Amino acid sequence: MKPLTVLGIETSCDDTAAAIVQEAALGDRILSNVVMSQERLHAAFGGVVPEIAARAHAEKLDHAVEAALDEAGLGLPDIDAIAVTAGPGLIGGVLSGVMLAKGLAAGSGRPLVGVNHLAGHALTPRLTDDLAYPYLMLLVSGGHCQFLIVRGPDAFQRLGGTIDDAPGEAFDKTARVLGLSQPGGPAIEREAGQGDPNRFSLPRPLLDREGCDLSFSGLKTAAIREIERLTAAQGGLTEADRADLAASFQSAVTDVLAEKSRRALEAYIAEAPRQPVLAVAGGVAANETIRSALRSVAEAAGARFVAPPLALCTDNGAMIAWAGIELLHAGHLSDMTLAARPRWPLDTGQAPLLGSGKKGAKA
Ligand code: KG4
Ligand code: ZN
């Protein structure tokens, strides 16, 4: 098959994204990557409002696709296929993406390929670093948290995942109660830099339970209780309280992610992969404390640590275009019956994870 140039469309949450990716040497693959964030539209509501998200996608998506084509210096006839997130995610947004992709495919006569959003994240280290299969992926964001052994574009084994909140969601809620700005992750990381991570002893959920499942809801609640207790006792929080709470919270999340990553690595390395790799994706992977803890865990296990650039770790169209390329090579094609799916587990051999999260289904 000749090298492909693919348009990728992503609308599963609060980013309206379109990108053009071509099969080329590392560094020359992404011709354009347009992400129109809706953060401002949802800011007042303390979370993504599905109806507002769906309307904004419907309004902006045409522009995002035009901008992606313009930036790449290409027209629709130059595109070999159209890849679109068909789930999991907020259904109104996924629907707008799938409808537009079908329209473009019908109008241009080009093939259509439906992509699982989580596969887009999970395959990103192949786009950025040419990783060989199988590698271990920790997806850690505002809507997702799971360990996957990635064996191929359509072959994922889930070793574990959150049974309630995603860590980004816990960062955001804790930040809100601390009176910090949104998104809460970067705000907590900034505060934590001045704080004492040992002042408050917060729980490390599920460390006493075997396996790689995680939980962040109890930790979030414990942090919020501590904030409320101090506020009631003192009539407010001092600068030092805020920094110490942020540092203690971040340290608890880091410990949980590090220990569960150690276990996931152990299970994956037991299969004797030729070049063991722990890769991460998702907004929470931007956190320097978490990142360096994960790097240490990987190195201690003899694995390479790979973190794609942040713009490709968070939601974007390039990851969908790339997953589309890999799926097309593996013989996957969709047609006009392609459905938008709010839930779509990557590893269908496993029971679904509980919880749905502020950013939609975790699947
Ligand atoms: O991957 P992402 O952009 O969107 C999805 O959730 O799909 O991740 C956003 C999440 C937010 O919850 C945000 O607070 C968190 O990632 N985040 C961080 C940091 N930067 C972003 N969490 C901790 N530390 C950070 N530096
Ligand atoms: Zn995502």
Helices and strands in order, then pairings?
Layout (H helix, E strand, L loop, with lengths): L4 E6 L4 E8 L7 E8 L1 H4 L7 H23 L8 E7 L3 H18 L3 E5 H13 L5 E6 L4 E8 L2 E7 L5 H12 L5 H9 L24 H18 L4 H31 L7 E5 L6 H13 L3 E3 L3 H4 L4 H12 L34
Parallel strand pairs: 1-4, 4-5, 6-9, 9-10
Antiparallel strand pairs: 1-2, 2-3, 6-7, 7-8
Helix pairs in contact: 2-3, 4-11, 5-6, 5-7, 5-8, 6-8, 7-8, 8-9
> Could you name the ranges where pLDDT drops below 50 across 5 or more consecutive residues?
356-363
- Going by CATH, the architecture of the largest domain would be 2-Layer Sandwich
Mean pLDDT: 93
Number of strands: 10
Query: Describe the biggest sheet?
Result: 5 strands, mixed
As for the CATH topology of the largest domain, it is Nucleotidyltransferase, domain 5
Instruction: Please bin the fraction of helical residues.
Output: 40-55%
Whole-number radius of gyration? Answer: 20 Å
Give the H and E element order.
Answer: EEEHHEHEHEEEHHHHEHEHH
Summed up, the helix count is 11
| 3D shape | globular
CATH class of the largest domain: Alpha Beta
Compute the separation of the termini in Å. Answer: 33 Å
Strand residues, percent: 15-25%
Q: How do the strands line up in the largest sheet?
A: 3-2-1-4-5
